[in-house]
Amino acid sequence: CELTNRLTELKSELEDLEQKELILDQQRCWIEQSIRNTTEDCSNLTYVKHEDICNCFCGHTLLAVRAPSGTQLDVPIPKAVLNSPTKYQIYMKSIRGPIDVLLLNKH
Amino acid sequence: AGCLTPNSYTYRINSSPSKELSDINRMIRQGCV
Amino acid sequence: AQECQNLEVERQRRLERIKQKQSQLQELILQQIAFKNLVQRNRQSEQQANRPPPPNSIIHLPFIIVNTSKKTVIDCSISNDKFEYLFNFDSMFEIHDDIEVLKRMGMACGLEVGKCSPEDLKVARSLVPKALEPYVIEMAKGPISNVYITGG
């Protein structure tokens, strides 16, 4: 009897969870559409100023990278080399258009 | 395309989730292998 | 008993999937609020200044930021067509996307850390589709970790 009750409970809960997942998928579609509308309708207003970025990362050297969607960044795992500073690398490769890099140095 | 350089983490602009950037930053902070 | 066992496994799997989808939905809601706040701020600034900012003083989304100490020596190689860049740093760096910058600018109303004032919550609720408002209210209290049931 206990197992039968548990079975009934589980089946009911799985139905609820299935319903919940469908609602989540629907809500994701709504918000993605809403984001597309915002970025397309107001494309001339989706920008930040250099000072906005500099204020977020005080005292740092900043590289702002604008590149086509899908541009690939590869960051190799740093290797320690005896008696010389560890090298850190970023390799960027675009297939759809040029990459623009801006050096932001508030100081 | 797979990784462009061996033993590296990959992120695609405006496509990969932000979490992949957090993974890269953590890997850099943990420093050398 | 075997069937119970199978359904328990399926239930756990579904719960994990729902939590992941919920986390992704929260991130998208944050993005939407941040984008709309940014657009409103820029629109107001342009109206006050009566002109758009100089093109060489702004960066359009999407972008990423690489930040490193100001002592870091950066060596950069660029292909002729600017399709490939290789950066060498002699010190650590961090990479952040534009959403992270918008959050640091306060454009997500503090929802990303669950610290949202009543006024900011009111603004944030007005920036998302009505059906998603319950999420925003819940996010204002802190990241939603359990399965949160909203209306249909």
From TrEMBL, chain A:
Coiled-coil stretches noted in the UniProt entry, renumbered to this chain: 1-27
Subcellular location: Nucleus
Sequence similarity: Belongs to the E2F/DP family.
Name of this protein: Transcription factor E2F4-like
Covered range of the whole protein: 99 to 205 of 347
